[in-house]
Write a structure and sequence with these properties.
Helices cover 41% and strands 15% of the residues. By secondary structure, it is of the alpha/beta class. Strands 1-2-3-4-5-6-7-8 form an eight-stranded parallel beta barrel, surrounded by six helices. Helix 3 packs parallel to helix 4 and helix 4 packs across helix 5. The longest helix is centred in the middle third of the chain and has 17 residues. The termini are far apart.
Length: 254
């Protein structure tokens, strides 16, 4: 698709029903993000979610999607400087979830881990730019790569990951000019989230896109529906019908 100049559409999903819906709508790829820690569990950061939890979410998505590429996040601490341990975690993810590929946050600091996983035959997408698993190091969810030193390091990491055999890059919250520059300099696809229109594709979190989450409104988000209002109204209508003895009616009873 990159070679043909066709943009790549990506959304997150964490359960069977949502995966089935967006897969049938012909989304190109689905990321089972560790953002499930926030959107599905209610944690403040992505750090608490475990490998077992991610495997469960990924399995649900794999069961629901029949055509889209399924990429699963490796959660915090599972790929962090011990290549053999990282490989074992990646093998567990692939074997138990049935996913097509994994996504790993990090650059040159964990290059040996990434190389070992790729050499074992596991497709890897690398997540660079703003890396939510490193939030305690950053101290903020602000834009990354604004100064030359960090931008140069980011570009070097992207080129290194391509050299190691990564099949794609996810670039989060970086200047649009940098996102386009990286996309032009690597032959593998780049998927952006807050990285401008010059990347090869775009990803957003499904709850944000569908307007289910009202508490999160970053600049890069575009809401395509208002399911929060729709679901609130439907719930209130159900409550009223139950209270007023209008549900179930005679046709809805055996």
């Amino acid at each position: 698709m990159k070679q043909n100049g066709e943009k790549i559409s990506v959304l997150t999903a964490y359960d069977y029903t949502m995966a089935k819906i967006i897969d049938e709508a012909e989304i190109d790829a689905i990321i089972v993000g560790d953002s499930a820690s926030n959107t599905m569990i209610g944690n403040e950061t992505t750090l608490p979610i475990s490998l077992d939890q991610m495997i469960n979410y990924a399995t649900s998505v794999v069961n629901g999607a029949k055509r889209a590429l399924i990429i699963v996040d490796m959660p915090f601490g599972t790929v962090s400087g011990d290549p053999l341990k990282s490989l074992q975690a990646a093998i567990r993810m692939m074997r138990e979830s049935g996913a097509d590929a994994i996504k790993i946050e990090g650059g040159s600091e964990i290059k040996e881990d990434i190389k070992k996983i790729i050499d074992a035959g596991i497709p890897v997408m690398v997540h660079l730019g703003l890396m939510p698993q490193s939030i305690n190091k950053y101290g903020t969810y602000g834009v990354r790569g604004k100064d030359k030193e960090e931008a140069d390091k980011l570009l070097e990491d992207c080129l290194l990951m391509e050299q190691l055999g990564a099949f794609g890059l996810l670039l989060e919250k970086i200047p649009a000019t940098l996102g386009e520059e990286i996309s032009n300099k690597v032959s593998i696809p780049t998927i952006g989230i807050g990285a401008g229109s010059g990347t090869d594709g775009q990803v957003l979190v499904i709850q944000d896109v569908m307007g289910m989450n009202k508490d999160f409104s970053p600049k890069f988000l575009r809401r395509y529906a208002d399911l929060h209002s729709v679901m609130t109204e439907a719930t209130k209508n159900f409550i009223n019908d139950v209270k007023n003895k209008n549900f179930p009616n005679e046709q809805e009873s055996y």
